[in-house]
Amino acid sequence: MRKYETIFILDPSLGEERIETEIKRTGDFIEGHGAKILRTDRWGMRRLSYPIAKKTQGYYVLIFFEGEVSVPKDLEGFYRLNEGCLRFLTTLSETEAAAESEEEESSHRSKKQPE
User: Fold this and answer.
1) Residue range(s) defining the domain that contains residue 95
2) Residue 7: which CATH number?
């Protein structure tokens, strides 16, 4: 299992109840695909860097989870079908990515050394 982080921006015109529902739906989707949610951070309403669909603000949510390699692809498909989601991004967690690059470097070094 790998560690991922996903951030998504919800349309602020959805209202508080609908925003909570969308956050819960996203969490349920992640868990429904066999992943484990480690932490959910609600950043709240923030100003967007540039207008998206004529909106200047959005509700930001960051979720850290642990799951199989197929989960991020399925999750991004879920975001694309969600009309309340303005933008999204799912990445390998920094600590996981750092560990992977360290492993690659050590294996690369070991291949270069003559026996």
Assistant:
1) 2-112
2) 3.30.70.60
